[in-house]
Structures are given as C-alpha cells and as structure tokens.
Design goal:
The chain is mainly α. The strands form 4 sheets. A 4-stranded mixed β-sheet has the order 6-9-7-8, with no helix packed on it. Strand 7 and strand 8 form a beta hairpin. Helix 2 packs parallel to helix 6. InterPro entries: SusD-like_2, TPR-like_helical_dom_sf. This is SusD-like starch-binding protein associating with outer membrane. It holds the Pfam family SusD-like_2.
C-alpha cells in the first residue's frame, strides 16, 4: 500500500455509481467533477478501492472480535461484544461487504468492456473471496440476483450456502484459468496493492482460496471437496512460501489507512492497552516455547513473586529491583515502559499461605506468577484478573501481558492484513492427507505449515527446535491447533475451522452470554424491514439450538447449512 501516496484520494469516492441516472438537461450541473463515472472508470483505479476495503474489513474481523471468539485476545473493558459474544444485528458489516461487491462488480464489467483479462480475473477472485466471506458469516444470502438493482431487482432472493459455495468455486476456477493466460500489459504498476500485477501470485491466491472453500464444504460435500483439493494439489500452483502470502500493507496516513490500534489515532491508547492476549492462546504458546510468543506479546510489567517470609497476604506496593516503593501501588504504562527499558525490574510479593483474593466473586486465584500472563476467556470482569490494583476503567493491569508495542504503530513491520497464507494452505493439505486424499504426506504438510508461519513472523531460525516440541503424532487436533495459532490476526479462518471440526476444543467463558461459542452473524433488522420475505425464508432454514435464546433461529448460536447434521462443533 505504499503506492497509495501516488493515488489521489478522490479515486476512493465511488458512491456516485448511480449518478448517471440524471436527466440530460441536468447532467452538466449534477456531474461530480471529483467522482468516478462508471461508464468511463479505469479498471486500474478501481483495483485499490476494492482491495483495500476488503483487506481492512477482513483484518477488523480476525484481529477484532473474532479473535475474542477464538480466544486469541480478550478485551479487559467494554468487552461485551468482544469477549462475551453479546452481538446485535450485523447491519454495518452486511453493508460493508455488499458495498465491496458493488465496486468489484464495476471493476469486472469495465474490465470486460475494455478487454482487460488480468483485471477480470482479479475481480472474479475478489468476488469469490467476498461472497465466500458473506456466506461464512451469515449463511444464506443474496447471490444469484444480487447487484442487479439497475435491472429492477431491488429485493433479491437469498441463495443457500450450498449454492453460494458452489458458485464461488466456479468463479475461482475461472479466475485461475484466466490468470494462466492473462495479458498484464493493461495493468498500471502500483495499483494492485496485493501483488503489483504478478499474475502467477494471483493464480496461487485464487487456487489457495479454492483449497480453503473445498475444505470448508468437506463435511457436507466430501466428493466435490476431495476431487477439487486433489486437482489443485496436482497443479502445484498454490501458496507455498510465506513470501507469496496475500497481504495488504498500511500507509498510516489516516485512521482508515492505519493499523486498527494505532496510537497515532487513539491518543489515550485505549484500543491498544485494552486488548490483551487471551490465556488460552498464550498458555499454549508458553507450554511449547513458541518463538512467536515474544513477537506478539510482552512480559508482564509487574511480576508476582511467591514469598513465604511475607507477613501479609500481598504486598500493598510494588517493588523496583527488589526494593519496596512505598506509596506506589502502580505506575502508568508510559512510566513502566520507560523504566523497564533502562533495565528496571518490577515485582510484587505475596505469601501463598496467607493470600486471600480481594474479590473472590470476580477473581478467585491462584495468582499467576508467569513471565507472560494472558486474560482467561469470558471473565465476568477481566479488570480484576490477577489482583490488578487499578481495577474498573483505571489505567491498566500491570499483572497481565500486553500486545507487543509494534501493534501501537500505524504501519510498517509486521502490520499487514493477511487474506490467505502459505501456512494456511499447508495445514489444509495436511488435513486432506490425513483424510487419505492424494495431497502428499500429512506430517510433511503439517511441518511446512509451522515453518511458513514462523517465516511470516521472522523467527524461522527457531523452526528446528520448535517443530520437535510439537512433533506431529497423527491427530487432527494437532493440525487445527497449529493452524489456529498461525491464524494470529486472521482468526476468522480459525472460527470457521472450529465451527466445522469443533477444534480447538475451546471452553466458553463465565459471562451469561458466553454459554457456547457463536456460529454466525445475525441478519439485520434493516434487511428484515426492507427485504423481509427473503430474509425470513433464509432464517427458517437455520437450525435452532439449545443456545439460540430469545432470537430463536436468527441467533448467533443457530446452525447454518454448513454444520447442520454434522454434530459440530457442539
């Protein structure tokens, strides 16, 4: 995305797609000189509009609340929608994804009109990605008759998940074939923010999405999935190395062009400091001495120390290099960061015999003395965890780990939206091989999935030691667990794997709405009000469960077609 500084911001104003309906005598005075005429739009200028919108939205899911569902992270305040799945109707998400489709549809139609084969293939790939995400998130959705408002189709019927998945598979197959022979001479360098016009990498991306969606439907349509995955594997054209991952960098020019927790656009640093590593992920990584741990997370600023000589249950004040700091119960994040950078070590002592929890209704111990400490999933009030002295909405929890400081930045380094990866592809092939499908050895693919993830995060030199610790023993649980870890910042895929397999075997939290992990997004009231017949038909096909609650079928705990009859995930 570094090329964005060469692209006028006005390129991104595409809300004028219907402006051409003005009467002839009003055309001149109603013509927007800053807009894009859909009849003359250059496909090159449309590429970044589609690609950045999709990249941003996908990251906001996988680094956002779906990371809460999959227990990658937890929020330690204002956490209902993040930790506890207390979701409402998903109108903004729905509008966003269909908005991307409208822009992508213009990209495709203009590419066809101008004979730009490379751009057509890109548009088909993005169509598959976007529609696939919609079906993954909600279930049934407008597909066949979507995007036909100019043809009078204002209230499109909802297609089944099955129809949508089969449709996007055909689009991706067509895109892959087009990339093989596409003419890239019409591409203007710098406008493709994923691959800068490299058609082979795009073909690998399209084929890797095929692997993703074939595996997605493997429990419902195993014959189609097996044949499709084996065909892609035989072709040899898919993401094999982390350097080919489908990623989008950030330019840091504004909040919408920056990493979501950038402190440049969040003066209080709340978005960063409120997001903590979840104990589920962190403890798994600590147990295996995972080299990615230190890349993603920080040690606790003030570590608990067990001290049987202490005359009270806990130190009231913190200690700096072993010396009690009288009157100092806590320091700010900025103060701790500055002093730790100079080599200072902060601790707080407790006597395990005398210690009694301050609020046993919210935190009942034991105290976590680890160097890295994550927040348990679904706590009723996570600000009390580990006897945090600044509870409620105060400062921060000095006894729990933070995300790495790199996640405070606006751009650069490891801050990328990742849409698909060589690591994910390798784990898909490992799972397929374990099923007995012709995709190479399960162990070799499993090991490669780990290797590619370590390469992504800059710790490939520690592969040999780590892979021995998590050596493959032939279980699907191992494959999915390593895929779940590798999905950091892209937890959406881990969610869909969990829904399909029940793995990792995550335990929901204690909050009332955390009785089970959710399975889907809720259809919005806006859609119900405006396209009620179609939405109600889709809702009727959902399977109500014991967890569905007052929303009944239109609940985040109801089962869409993809998992109905599979007994998964619960």
């Amino acid at each position: 995305m570094k090329i964005f500084k060469h692209i006028p911001k006005l390129v991104f104003v595409l809300a004028v797609l219907v402006a051409s309906s003005c009467k002839d005598n009003l055309t001149e005075i109603n013509e927007n000189p800053n807009g894009v005429d859909p009849n003359s739009a250059n496909p090159n200028l449309l590429l970044p509009t589609v690609m950045t919108g999709v990249g941003n939205q996908y990251l906001k899911l996988g680094y956002g609340r779906i990371a809460g569902v999959m227990q990658h992270t937890q929020e330690d305040a204002w956490k209902d929608g993040f930790n506890d799945y207390n979701w409402s109707e998903e109108d903004d998400e729905w509008k966003a994804w269909y908005g991307f489709l409208r822009n992508n549809n213009l990209l495709y139609s203009r590419s066809v009109e101008m004979g730009y084969t490379f751009h057509q293939a890109v548009a088909l790939t993005m169509k598959g990605f976007i529609f696939g995400t919609i079906a993954d998130l909600w279930g049934d959705a407008p597909y066949t008759n979507a995007l036909k408002g100019d043809q009078g189709e204002m209230l499109p019927a909802f297609d089944s998940q099955e129809v949508i998945y089969k449709g996007i598979i055909e689009d991706l197959k067509q895109a892959s074939a087009m990339f093989a022979t596409a003419d890239v001479s019409s591409y203007a360098p710098g406008y493709d923010v994923y691959y800068n016009g490299d058609k082979l990498k795009w073909q690998k991306f399209a084929n890797s999405l095929l692997l993703r969606y074939y595996m997605r439907i493997s429990s419902k349509l195993p014959d189609i999935a097996k044949a499709g995955i084996e065909q892609v594997y035989t072709s040899g054209i898919y993401l094999k190395d982390a350097s080919d991952d489908a990623v989008m960098e950030y330019i840091g020019a504004a909040s919408g062009d920056s990493w979501p927790t950038a402190i440049a656009f969040d003066v209080s640093q709340s978005n960063w400091r409120r997001r903590r590593p979840a104990a589920t992920l962190l403890n798994t990584m600590v147990a295996a001495n995972d080299p990615r741990l230190k890349v993603w997370f920080q040690p606790v600023h003030v570590r608990w120390v067990s001290d049987a000589t202490l005359k009270t249950g806990v130190d009231e004040f913190i200690r700096k290099d072993g010396v009690i700091q009288n009157g100092v119960k806590s320091l700010t994040e900025q103060e701790l960061r500055a002093q730790i950078a100079t080599g200072a070590k902060f601790t707080r002592h407790f006597n395990p015999t005398l210690y009694k929890p301050t609020r046993p209704d919210l935190f009942n111990g034991p105290l976590n003395t680890g160097e890295y400490v994550g927040i348990p999933a679904g706590m009723i009030d996570p600000t009390y965890y580990n006897e945090n002295p600044t509870t409620g909405q105060q400062v921060q929890n000095q006894h729990a780990s933070q995300l790495s400081y790199g996640y405070q930045a606006s751009k650069g380094g490891l801050l990328k939206a990742r849409l698909a990866s060589a690591s994910e592809t390798a784990f898909i092939l490992a799972e397929a091989a374990q099923k007995g499908w012709a995709t190479g050895g399960a162990e070799a693919n499993y090991n490669n999935g780990i290797k590619q993830s370590l390469q992504t995060w800059g710790v490939a030199d520690q592969y040999d030691a780590y892979v021995k610790t998590v050596a493959y023993k032939g279980t699907l649980a191992q494959i999915i667990e390593q895929k779940w870890i590798a999905g950091w910042t892209a937890a959406t895929e881990a969610w869909f794997d969990y829904r399909r397999t029940g793995l990792p075997a995550l335990v929901p939290g204690l909050a009332p709405t955390s009785r089970a992990l959710p399975l889907r997004f809720i259809y919005s009231n806006n859609e119900l009000n405006n396209n009620g017949t179609s939405v109600k038909s889709a809702i009727e096909k959902l399977e109500e469960t014991n967890f569905s609650g007052v929303r009944k079928k239109n609940s985040q705990w109801s089962k869409p077609w993809l998992v109905q009859g599979t007994g998964k995930p619960w």
